[in-house]
Amino acid sequence: MDDALVRAGRALRLAVLIALALLFLIPFYLLLRNGLSTERDITSPEWTFFPHELRWDNVHELFADTSVPFARSLLNSALIAVATTLGTLLLASLAGYGLARIPYRHADKVFYGILGTLLIPAAVTFVPSFVLVSSLGWISTLRGLIVPTLFSAFACFVFRQYFLGFPTELEDAAQVDGLGYWRTYWLIVVPNARPVFAAVGTIVFLGAWNSFLWPLVIGQDQSAWTVQVALSSFTTAQVIRLHELFVAAAVSILPLLVVFLVFQRWIVTGVERSGID
Amino acid sequence: MKHRSALWFWVFVGPFAAGLALFTYVPLLWSVGLSLFDAHNTVTPTHFVGLDNYTAMLRDDAFRDSLKTFLVFTAFIVPTTYVVSLTLALMVNRVRRARAFFRSVFFLPAACSYVVAALVWKMSIFSGVRFGLANTVLGWFGADSVAWLATPDPPWYWLVIITVRLWLQAGFYMILFLAGLQRIDPALYEAAAVDGARPGWTVLRHITLPQLRATSVAVVLLLVVNAFQAFDEFYNLLSDARGYPPYARPPLVYLYYTALGQGQNLGLGSAGAVILALVIAVVTAAQARWLKLGRTDADG
């Protein structure tokens, strides 16, 4: 084929990709633009791409506004996301290792029992789970928001698959040295399995921070709002202060964008490994 | 020794298995129980009503409408996401410059929550007033402003709902397709070139798509299950201080207002949860069978 034609095709593809990339970035830009604009620049009928003035005061105003519990909701989200991530990693990795490595007569049955819960989408069980959590008296508590979400069959499955493909030589050597399962796990397996911990951990953290339905159902009092619930209630409120709403949304995705960009490599491996989010 | 290893098995697996059973199987069974009772505002009802909740649910027009909403939503979101994410993957896979950059940009929305994305869509891009971005662009072409979300007639709200999810999830599925593309043996393309196949449609149809079959099956299954669970963007785009409008209620939104709204009819809500769990199980199983009925020799 003609060389010039090939080069033209390549240039065209690059141009289309750049256009699409800009399109994908627009929502992020709008968040930032409106978050740092005056109310007038947001609602002006003469809408301009760049605001007339940047108003960093919006951030200050957001945290000074005592009528919205925004700082508290950020704290709640951070506590929930960190606790959920650590708890899920601990429980699911132990279970995944046990299923992959410790011989037991009924291991298959236990595994299928765990796998079976993947067939029931978590969102469909929110009414039953609400019933359980409310009878435990855990409505509007951090316990109620965290504990029921700690048992992720997906995370357990990913760990099991990973440990099944893990070379056995190291563990065999540990057994010869007289280390039991417990110490082998902590001293040999965990330090050598960092990639899978990073992958699962990042995905769980993103999921916990962004989750909405469960916190909406359980976190009914303002004191138990997560940042997503707080944002949602501002959006559906009677009076909406747009600049405050947008700056709040921008602040809420900032920690996530940092986590995402730093750990992106791990998320990609995690997604490829599982195909489940 | 055998006894010892059984003990250790439960030390490792026990806490997780017990928690999963407590927070998944117990609520489900409890729910099946509740669905047979008249349970308003209570989780320990005494008035047994048999299958009344189920018949009431299935007769309820709003419930049937919610299943229709799911079907319409799925009919739009599954093909569009499939095509967009596959196209992105093919383009990113072949670009020579800045591949990592493009991959990051398209994947970045996966870090954004549905709540935040819905907020940008509702308050900025598709706000029904003239200063909204979409209406500004329409204005450049001399078109009238559209009240995107405020009216069901014409149903422009579907465009808003579809594009927000498309933006959020296309990059995620692009990553899955990219992984699938990396696994294709380059020798297949070389052989095709020797046979005189020109790059483009022929190669895509006869090599790339068949080789991506396993990935495609996984992507479609995930897309449908996720569409069935749609709640966040519907709730945040359509509800306001006056509540949720009577149209465009997908199953979970319907269930949310039935079980947890005024009256907290947990018996009826539980019956709905059981029905939906059955529906999604049947849909998933049927899809898995149907998708496997085709050619399977190319499966990875």
UniProtKB/TrEMBL annotation, chain A:
Keywords: Cell membrane, Membrane, Transmembrane, Transmembrane helix, Transport
InterPro entries in the record: MetI-like, MetI-like_sf
Membrane-crossing segments per the record: 12-32, 78-99, 111-139, 145-164, 185-209, 245-263
GO BP annotation list: transmembrane transport
Gene Ontology, cellular component aspect: plasma membrane
Membrane topology (UniProt): Multi-pass membrane protein
Subcellular location: Cell membrane
Pfam families: BPD_transp_1
Primary localization class, coarse: membrane
Domain ABC transmembrane type-1: from-to ranges: 74-263
Gene3D superfamilies named in the record: MetI-like (1.10.3720.10)
PROSITE patterns: ABC_TM1
Top-level taxon of origin: Bacteria
Family according to the record: Belongs to the binding-protein-dependent transport system permease family.
UniProt-recorded name of the protein: Carbohydrate ABC transporter permease
Source organism (scientific name): Streptomyces griseoluteus
UniProtKB/TrEMBL annotation, chain B:
PROSITE patterns: ABC_TM1 (PS50928)
Record's bilayer topology term: Multi-pass membrane protein
Pfam families found in the cross-reference section: BPD_transp_1 (PF00528)
Location (main, coarse): membrane
CDD domains: TM_PBP2
Keywords annotated in UniProt: Cell membrane, Membrane, Transmembrane, Transmembrane helix, Transport
Keyword flag Transcription: no
Domain called ABC transmembrane type-1: residue spans: 67-287
Cited Gene3D superfamilies: MetI-like
Record's signal peptide: none
Domain of life: Bacteria
GO biological process, one term: transmembrane transport
TM stretches of this protein: 7-30, 70-93, 100-121, 156-179, 266-286
InterPro entries xref list: ABC_transporter_permease, MetI-like, MetI-like_sf
Family, similarity comment: Belongs to the binding-protein-dependent transport system permease family.
Name of the protein this chain belongs to: Sugar ABC transporter permease
Top-level taxonomy: Bacteria, Bacillati, Actinomycetota, Actinomycetes, Kitasatosporales
